[in-house]
Prior knowledge:
Layout: H1 3-30, H2 37-47, E1 56-61, E2 70-71, E3 76-77, H3 89-92, E4 100-102, E5 106-108, E6 113-123, E7 128-137, E8 156-158, H4 162-166, H5 177-180, H6 182-195, E9 198-204, E10 209-214, E11 221-225, H7 226-229, H8 251-265, E12 273-279, E13 284-289, E14 294-298, H9 299-304, H10 307-311, H11 314-318
Helix pairs in contact: 6-8
Amino acid sequence: MTWLNEAIKAQRAILASRLESPMAMLAGQCVKLWRDRDRLDEILRAALVDMPVCKLIYAIDTHGRQISSNVGRHAIDRDKYGQNLAHRPYLSNAIPYKGFLLSDVYLCPPERRSCITAVQAVTDGSSVLGFIAADYYLRDLPQLERRNTSGQSAWRQIKGDPAIRDALFQQSRVMSAMDERLDDVIAIMDELICDRGVFHAKLHFSSSRATLWMTDDPFRYRVHVFEEIFDPSICLAYPSRPYAEQTVVPLAHVRPVFERFKVLRDADDNIYLRSGSLNVFNGMVGLTFSCDGSHYMPVEQFLAMDDKFWFGTLPQRLNGSR
């Protein structure tokens, strides 16, 4: 299981633990009023007092037909009574005949916002009468436990545009301005990262530009064209900063990463590095090749790859297939 799946699973578990008990209590209150539409609407509206971020709440029979109004915090929409909801993801995928279910996240019409639905079975002790459904927009939910995403450190290969791969051997690398001064650019990038507060840097070799993110201002990036990035004077524009303690990339590994970019850039006239990035906080290297295949991998793994890995079966490796 990837870190992403683990994070989603953990967040769902926290949310379910908060919703399951009030939904079960509400279902118990609805049993005797299940066939009384007006009183059912009243019970559902009263329940919203204890469910402050719930967008809508409503009742559904076992065939997926809505048997209450759409009950919201500020209004009750009686026109929704009788509509068929059997196609909704929380009914078409799995139905909680024995208790509580938290749906997968889906895009709720008509706003197309990310939504999740808590569904609780309503039983009279011997049979299932139907279900109570409560819709929540993800943006309205209270802040859940913050998840650590540092687990996103595995090597990933991603295939790009098939049209680019199909025309791969009809193109040839053209020497760029950055290629001609790449040793200077590497030295400047090393200083910007190690001594000037840059934590994420991406070199676009063919277009001879660089994109930089600063520890002092991480929400905005800077784009520098070649005339700026090969001139050592650029370092004056970035205040001296100690190498951040939160980094996971040793100082001694920064320059070798960019030097390795140069090797991959010069590897072949048809298959070559188009852009390379380094983030010293998450320790990841990003690579995009002329075949439009991309790689993301930890710095240590990137530096450990010998020439045989990259060049031995170059087209197969760089196209994003193992």
